Amino acid sequence: MFSSKQIQKGLYFALATSIISGFSVFFNKYAVAAINPPLFFTAIKNIGVGLLLVAVLGVAYKWHLVKTLRPKAYVQLVAVALVGGALPFYLFFTGLSLIPAVNATIIHKTLVIWVALLAGIFLKEKLSPLTALGIGLLVLGQNFVGGFLGFTFSMGEALVLAATLLWSVETVIAKRALAHIDPDIVASARMGLGSLMLLVAALITTPQSFTTLIEFSATQWFWLVATSIFLLGYVSMWYRALTLAPATMVTAVLVLSTLITNVLSAVFVTRVWSATLMLQSLVIALAIVLVYVGMKRQGHTSEFASSTA
After folding, report:
1. What is the model's pTM?
2. How many CB atoms within 10 Å of residue 43?
């Protein structure tokens, strides 16, 4: 069972994740335009983050924990790498290169719906009426978006949706893995092993892209480093939040990143600031409060939560 202190701490990590995510999606839109193809950009960025996370294990003296893992844990880590750190990254950034950042953000934030459904089935996370109302408002809040011009049901949007569905599956797998595996190890597997899978795919599909790495301009290096830092912070905060709080609540808080991306888009892209942006902010903020209060009141006495305390 999650204690109030655990949920509170998990909330802080989730808030940090949402802030990082909001800036990350906005800046990645420019990064994928500056560094092509998307698979090459994603592979190089993820490799850098994976190496940094592996280094963190060494600095924190956690390598000995890897040796003590059971075979089942290694299977979970490989699954997290494939379903969370490899395929969805390629799908998402390929889609992002084809559609506006706001559209990608809205689609990605449907993650809370898919996670709530999967968590109810596989993690036994029961939703109280208050929590369900909050999730409903989160979905509604996506309709009040600054700079959003509507969906076109294009290939780009389909790719982002496919990535989002894979990340929802990864959330469930990771939640189970984090019950007995250090979050830094899970994050390292996701980005380290996942980036190797991306690298292999990139070498097969676009081998010529790697010859251009030494010819990168200062601008391209800036985007690569900046987006890598965002990703490093996102992964580190995300897994810590999942360790401490219910998956549904953590994913719900992540929707706050929509507001950040929308504000950035409204200020720097569309230059349109309307009452709809304020309305969306209020709706999403209220929704997250309802989800949090609902989870806290319920004490989250799910079978899975009790078994992982």
Report:
1. 0.83
2. 27
